[in-house]
Amino acid sequence: MVKNIFLAFSLTLPLIGCVTTTSPVATTKSYIVDGKTYQATGKSERIKTIVLHYTVSDNERSINTLTTGKVSAHYLVLDNDDDKIYNLVPENERAWHAGDGGFAGRTILNDTSIGIEIVNVGIAPEYKDALKDGTLAYHPYDHYVAFDQLQIKKVAELVQDITARYDISPKNIIGHSDMAPSRKIDPGAKFPWEQLYKQYAIGAWYDGADKFAFMDIEAFAAATIPEIKQQFRDYGYQINSSDEWDKASRDVIYAFQLHFRPRNPTGEIDLETYAILKALNKKYADSDNFY
Ligand SMILES: [Zn+2]
């Protein structure tokens, strides 16, 4: 009994010590947040961009890479024949999918974008080394592997949903290659941007009549390299200001062609590419809301 009392006393002693020597770490706030009385009108969504990718891998490896390492995406679309899309990172957190680059005046796109990874190997295995001997500068359309139509349907509906919730501008639904042209070629020439635009009203696409009107050989011949580069910049691409089509600049042309003229991506500026670029800038001028 005596022992028990002693034990009880020794256990309570430190607690008493705590109470009596309390240092003043405040547990009550001296303010309340009033979010009702005043409201600002100058505001917009933090999410501005959707970046689409392919994983260059199969389902199993894609899941492993995107859930265990230092790369991730908000959503993963496998090539299974089911109705699932996996949400790997909550939309209010940053996924690590974009890396260096930029688009439409924004850099560090992980801060302001939703990333969607689609399982697709990208370049077909037999063409993986096609650029190695230097005779080809860029992969042509045929080197890319087509997407499963069910994947495209799921991606399209997901993008529709995200676009509506964050009011994302059509131009800001882009491929990884659009924001990082010298590092990335995904989602590649077989990602059906035109189909997404026409069938699901997703993303940007030019009007055929505008393109036709800009197919003007003389105007194209008269356009200087800095002028054409400015057109790319106006649309949103990051491009250097050198007055030649150096490798980095050709990478931008290639990225643009992957998106808007996917059947013939060459990395070379030509009349049709120029006309499409002009048509896009006409249609989407002033559509950015940088604030
Ligand atoms: Zn990517």
Describe this structure in words.
The chain is an alpha/beta fold. The protein has one domain: Peptidoglycan recognition protein-like (Lysozyme-like). Helix content is 38%, strand content 8%. It is built from 10 helices and 7 strands. The chain has helices at 2-20, 59-68, 149-166, 176-179, 193-200, 208-214, 217-222, 225-235, 247-260, 271-284, and strands at residues 49-54, 75-77, 86-87, 102-103, 106-107, 113-118, 173-175. The chain has a 5-stranded mixed sheet, with helices on both faces. It has a two-stranded antiparallel sheet with strand order 4-5. Helix 6 (208-214) packs across helix 10 (271-284). It is globular and about 80 Å long. The N and C termini lie far apart (74 Å). Bound molecules: zinc ion (ZN). Residues 53, 176, 184, 186 line the site of zinc ion (ZN). Residues 53, 176, 184, 186 line the site of zinc ion.
Descriptors:
single chain, 291 residues, alpha/beta, Lysozyme-like, two-stranded antiparallel sheet, 10 helices, globular, disordered N terminus, binds zinc ion
